[in-house]
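Thread: quick sanity check before group meeting

JM: Hey all, I'm pulling together slides for Thursday and realized we never actually wrote out the predicted structure for the chain we discussed last week. Dropping the sequence here so it's in one place. If anyone has concerns about the input, flag it before I start.
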Amino acid sequence: MNVTGILSAALVIGIVGLLVGLLLVAAAAKFHVEVDEKEAKVRELLPGNNCGGCGFAGCDALAAAIAKGEAEVGACPVGGASVSKAIGEVMGVAAGTSVRKTAFVKCAGVCGKTRNKSNYYGVQDCKMAVVAPGRTPKKCVYGCLGFGTCAKVCPFDAIHLVDGIAVVDPEACKACGKCIKACPNNLIEFVPYEAKFRVQCNSNSKGKAVREACDAGCIGCGACVKACQYDAISLTDNLAKIDYEKCVRCGACAEKCPTKVIRVKPRQHT
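JM (edit): ok, ran it. Output follows.
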């Protein structure tokens, strides 16, 4: 190839590159989308975990919703009060007061308390185990299967298997809700972080069936309901439930519970 050919090729490439560049500039100007300044500031304040605990697809989506007034300034469960306050200042609104929540596993069926009806040799995953014949190897079909599916999805290392059941460390939990969605038995729920007493059972079976399956289950006897002077505890489908807005943390319900399933904050992972 001679010099003229090389120069011609370089010229053609240069002209094509220039035209493409001009087209890209024109396209950028035509399709430019103005970014809301408040949205950008809110996004900078969000922790960036993209956990979905706020109910939106991620931090970008939440920032856009807050900027548009479609979500509360305290919608991020991971950021907590400090982030809520900072976002409130950006939006020019009061952050308000928010109750810190933590996930809680409603099962006390540790290895020495619960009984099995069969052996399970399949995939070590809770969602797989519940579709096996018999639904679960344990006699209690409501309790923790102990395969740690919830622990695997937790982005904060806040949930671990202890003595055969999942246990949440409330100090590490950010209330993102991923463990709640992962549990096929629906036995993980949010409770106030400051809640002193919690019903650590999820069974809707009657007393006799509960006793046959586990030594640490709610038998639906109603002793806790009678003991509470503040109407803060009730029985629903054979299971005691605490109304934390009414509870004064006196401990009368826990004292009268014959199976001791109403407990002070469950033991943490150490």
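AS: nice. The chain is about 35% helix and 10% strand. The mean pLDDT is 86.
JM: adding both to the slides.
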